[in-house]
Amino acid sequence: MTTIPSLVDVAWLTEHLTDPQILIVDTRWYLMNPPQGAIEYAESHIRGAIHLSIDKDLSADPFDGPGRHPLPSPDSVCTTFSAAGIDPSVHVVVYDSAGGSIATRLWWMLRYYGHTAVSILDGGWQAWQAASGATASGIENRQSRTFVGSPDSSLVVDADVVESVRLEADVALIDARAHERYTGEVEPLGPRAGHIPGAISLPFAGNLTPAGTFKSLAELRERYVAAGIPAANHIICYCGSGVTATHDIFALHLIGRHARLYQGSWSDWASTEHRPIHTGDQP
Domain 7-151 classified CATH 3.40.250.10? Predict the structure, then answer.
């Protein structure tokens, strides 16, 4: 049985571009201008790619569940993935224009539902453009298939679990947001600024090279070792609303570590007044 690579490069995708069992998904999306990703996709995208939106396809309505981007219901997920043309035989390759920080939401969701045949395109849209990869415009669709899967509850935690374990010695709580959001200097969307007490600041951007590709496995291991992560038997990642935290989960996956997602993340934690918060550099 062929091993599915978690990370593929432009050369790999170019070689497999016409494989009918490969589904390319464009997940471009921007926090401060959500519709822009779909507009950019319609203008130009990797040939054969479909587009799935964080807001419309990969999340339920804001706070219809924990946080600003709660996970959709299982029925909704199966309907979306079936319409996208995903069944157990399909290998999904996901890209974005943000170093993989949006694409990893779909990577994580598919694995959450038991579909492990999914990869991230290293360097995303920028790397494809730089290599003059084949592109198309307009809206593309794939023939629908039957997606079968059920969520693995062991991969997510809620606020109560975070509250109960966040200060335990064998737990690492990772904040994937930009450091200025962690310290509380900036908070563009949440009702309160700061971070969950006990959390370590490891912005997802630290997983990337200046070119926007993932650092080597050795560099990623060094990053998480320096943060003390290997000493922890249990890792929980969060961000603003459960999207970019999956980037840290993906990076940890690349180096053989397992992490869970606090799906509501800061948008859930900060909206509940009795939850404690810290500001500044210290956990």
Answer: yes
91 touches 124 (CB < 8 A) = no
The structure tokens listed for 64 are 């219809």
User: Hey, where are the domains in the chain?
Assistant: 7-151, 154-269
Contact 232, 259 (CB under 8 A): no
* pTM attached to this predicted model: 0.97
- Residue 78 appears among annotated catalytic residues: no
* DSSP three-state, residue 212: coil
Q: Which amino acid is at 146?
A: T
Segment 248-279, tens digit of pLDDT: 999 999 999 999 999 999 999 999 999 999 99
In angstroms, the CA 74 to CA 129 distance is: 35
Strand partners, 125: none
Catalytic site residue from 173, 239, 243, 259: 239
